[in-house]
Amino acid sequence: MSEQATSSGTARQEDLDAEYGQAYYLNYWGGGGPYERNEHWLRFFGTVADGIVRDLQPSTVFDAGCAMGFLVEALRQRGVEASGADVSEYAISQVHDSVAAHCRVASLTEPLGGRYDLVTCIEVLEHVPPDEIDRAIDNLCAAGDRLLISTTPGDFGEPTHFNVQPPENWAAKFAQRGFFRDPEQDLAYVSPWAALYVRREEPVADTVRRYDRAWWRLRREAREVRESLLETQAKLAEAEERNVVREELEEAQEEILRLRDLLVAKDTELGSAKGKVAELEDHRMRIAGVKHRLATAVPGLRTLIGAALRVMRSGR
Fold it and tell me: Which end of the chain is more exposed for a tag (fewer CB within 10 A), N or C?
């Protein structure tokens, strides 16, 4: 290697260390807080390792862009001979002691070294500049016959995402190298866009048959989901209508309670009024009795007064 090439490589590594140093991982764009050894990331990569062991059953795995080695660590804990490499010297300095010997600083533009049952590359390709991507993909394809690839089709705002592409563009690049997506593998535990690419030497007709079978299955599933959604929406509309009726019923019940309270109050007022009427009627009856007694006594009183006047006159 010439002195000029060595100088260029050193400058490039310095740039990478600046881009993917401690500050990058402390302010990690991918969610879950800082990218560090914590419960969130250990649990995530533990789930990914469980899925890989269950679905793909590899004996050897190379994690290209392994960062702090969490997937390498999780796979080795599950009996898989795993190793990895990452361009960030800082990330590699943070790997656990148990896997330190199995993780190294290296770029995807360099051969991975060796052959593996499975090569994983999770959220890495979008970081590779366009002028280096073909070399990186060549190196991935040279290292094994099965590639688990996850590269976001979004997050354009992340400053180190130099090469965000839609999934079909990546599929085309791998197909040019004889790798085709396995549509039967569901890798949602990695990401919604994760895919397994498998090296296949088969007639085009067989490839089309596999893709068409998967397309029709997905179309049927989509139709069933759409029908289920429409049914659910209808049920929700009916429930909302019943809810409106229930609300109106509750309002009517509240009005009934208000009117009942008002009726009780009016009944109370009516009872009080009836009591007063009865009292007045009793008073009226007592007055009538007095008047009757007076009317009965007046004629006798007049007779006595007349007799008294006559006695007084005869005495003169």
Answer: C
